[in-house]
Amino acid sequence: MIHEIYPKKYDPTYINRPINGDDYLLCYEKDGILVKYENESYSLPRCRDYSEIFGHEFEDIRDNAYYLFEISGEFFFEIELPVGYTDKIKFCRKIEEAEELLKPGESAWFFLRIHSFRELDPLTMVFAGATGYHLRNWKMASKFCGCCGGKTVPSTTERAFVCSDCGHAAYPQISPAVIVAVTNGDSILLVKNLRRPKNVRLELVSGYVEIGESFEHAVHREVLEEVGLKVKNVRLYKDQPWGISGAHMIGFVAEVDGDDTVVRQEDEISEAKWYKREDVPEYRNRLSVGSEMILKFKEGKL
Ligand SMILES: [Zn+2]
User: Any idea where the domains of the chain sit in the sequence?
Assistant: First the structure.
């Protein structure tokens, strides 16, 4: 899954540290991340690369770099560039679109949509980019105080933005969501979600946990809402961070309880069916707890 980067080690502890040339300096534009394509592989920018990309004036703004995290002795920062800096950098929605821009042997910097970026290798780069994206989105949403509207400044002692007027501190936000493999003997329930119109892929029932409910309560509620089924023997499978949507996914396995007739929530689910093990489509099992559960079921291991 996206966070399984062993033997590399992720350390989110906040430290107040100046940036060095060798440190990674992530940069995002809308829902895209700045990457370099060279010799048929992709990499994230380090601080020293910015002089090559933007020229000498970059030295003046590197103080704006915000510390994110450490992965096995490598430090990651993020920077929001001033207006106009990124105008000349191409924004690509798909990997093929980026690769078509270049002749063999050429290299280039460009923004790649985060949903395409997650398909790249190595996994540690994808995890760093997705986790940085989550932190950057929180940082963007924390520029002004949610209580009084005052301007905030980054705390120098912890990962927080503090209001200059009233002192309110905004901490990173993570939205927990449950994802459930509902089984019925030799079959598993797979759905297509209308909220992801371009994603025709089959997936598991999932939904955000509401304030005031337990994860297990969210499992029962979401399954009943989306497909009209009752479930029993709910057990935790695994959990994982999912920075691409600012979520944390908690994976569960549950058995249908009683009537197995599917009644789908029409404004949310376009398709919902039981699939026998052998009919479950192939998935690229790499990033998400959902695809891992589906594949394990197909292999008879869930
Ligand atoms: Zn305030």
Answer: 10-140, 142-172, 175-298
